[in-house]
């Protein structure tokens, strides 16, 4: 699978062709990610429309590369740079290819400068929601009304020069060109990808389907129907045990199974049991599953002791990951026998199999990481209805069959759970501290309205110990490392620049409320060189 397009050669073209097959489309969109903190929200907004969107590296992909892959449309995101600084290496010849472009913020300024507009530091930096006055109701604003709220976050403005050819489509009080158009180039100074911009989803829809004339979106409805019918036929009157973590994939499988097994005059089924494994999970995961899956025969299995026993003495990450897989498999096998199950169902995606070295396209692939849910060698036949899906096609199916959005867009959490966020040997005490710290951090991110803008965040229990002074005496305490990243697809990431006041608040809350913690640090490294998870 290609996660960020960094070059276009024969192999990449083959991979694109194969991914188009998986996504049942002949069309491709490119998103050039210029490093805005909201880039992953653009990807999500476009994925939601069911079109195939690949993230392109603006430093590597040239106009010649773009010409070879013939995208239906191109989105150029915002970013922290200024066009007049000359630090961006984006190939502006891409704007001359005649392919429809939607520039957002910096992406808009880039093409505007390219066609002769000037881009200047504005006297007033605009941040926050503003009323958008729409001048001209073009197809980009189809179905949108003037006066709606849009989120602005910029210090530079596109300005019209006497001979510039830009058509001004909209303005706000501080921004004379809040949206513009020139031939196939479209741009908005505001951020349509954030929830504050209520017309955002409509703008992405108009760009993809009216301006770029995309025809074949992922047929989630048909695929869902096929999967439900096939599950119904395979399962018949037999029983299924589902590994249910509450992440988007296992949740979607739960709903597929519901539709496969509950039909006709029935309102419930005793053929399905969900198992939630407690032990290396975060504090709110279990409640989250209980809240959304009250319609399923849900069994919570407390495997804490089994995990701790298997993890005893294991210090390296590969050892710990293997131990985790062993317990996960044993718990599911035991529960399947107890329930009288004939199948074990999991939310495994095609990507999980591919990253574990499997899959069906091309030659035998490298194993990037052995996923906890792949090749476990169960003695039961497995049901993995999403094993021909990638994350967003799985989500599209979920949306189609009514999986709550809250389940679909939760920040990712790795299968091996808190194990990858605790250094050294895993103990019950460390797990308890990891949960308390995670709870405070995620709670405060939500409180500050930062949760959605951050792609993923976590807290790590390090092996470092700091001397500290709490009360009158000297003591020592664990060093906790917080991290948060901005990313588009998890394959590269930028350390999120969280507000200092926020970091101080979380740090204080952790050291005040978790007695074992002596100090809190914040990770500033990007991926690469770091990875997103600590372990
Ligand atoms: P890394 O740490 O590789 O993480 O930069 C990229 C994304 O993958 C998640 N991750 C995992 N997910 N099993 C999973 O299901 C794993 O073993 C695993 N390791 C990392 C990580 O949380 C991030 O979202």
Q: How many DSSP-defined strands?
A: 19
CATH superfamily of the largest domain: Class I glutamine amidotransferase (GATase) domain
- CATH architecture verdict of the largest domain: 3-Layer(aba) Sandwich
Molecules bound to protein: xanthosine-5'-monophosphate
The major β-sheet equals: 10 strands, mixed
Number of helices: 15
Strand order of the largest sheet: 1-3-2-4-5-10-9-8-6-7
Our Rg estimate from Cα atoms comes to: 25 Å
| Top CATH class of the largest domain | Alpha Beta
Total separate domains: 3
| Terminal residue distance | 23 Å
List the helices and strands and how they pair.
Elements lengths: L3 E2 L4 H13 L6 E4 L6 H10 L4 E4 L6 H7 L3 E4 L24 E4 L1 H9 L3 E17 L13 E12 L7 E6 L2 E8 L2 E4 L11 H12 L8 H16 L4 E4 L4 H14 L10 E7 L6 H8 L4 E6 L1 H8 L5 H23 L3 E3 L4 H6 L26 E2 L7 H10 L4 H4 L19 H20 L8 E15 L2 E15 L5 E3 L4 H14 L3 E6 L13
Parallel strand pairs: 1-3, 2-3, 2-4, 4-5, 5-10, 11-12, 11-14, 12-13, 14-15, 17-19
Antiparallel strand pairs: 6-7, 6-8, 8-9, 9-10, 16-17, 17-18
The protein binds xanthosine-5'-monophosphate.
Xanthosine-5'-monophosphate binds next to loops.
Structure description:
With 535 residues, this protein is an alpha/beta fold. The protein has 15 helices and 19 strands. The chain folds into three domains: 208 residues, Rossmann fold, CATH 3.40.50; 189 residues, HUPs (Rossmann fold, 3-Layer(aba) Sandwich), CATH 3.40.50.620; 96 residues, GMP Synthetase, Chain A, domain 3 (2-Layer Sandwich). It is globular, with a radius of gyration of 25 Å. The model has no long low-confidence stretch (mean pLDDT 93). The two termini are 23 Å apart. The strands form three sheets. A ten-stranded mixed beta sheet has the order 1-3-2-4-5-10-9-8-6-7, sandwiched between helices. A five-stranded parallel beta sheet has the order 13-12-11-14-15, with helices on both faces. The site of xanthosine-5'-monophosphate (XMP) has 13 residues, from loops. The site of xanthosine-5'-monophosphate has 13 residues, from loops.
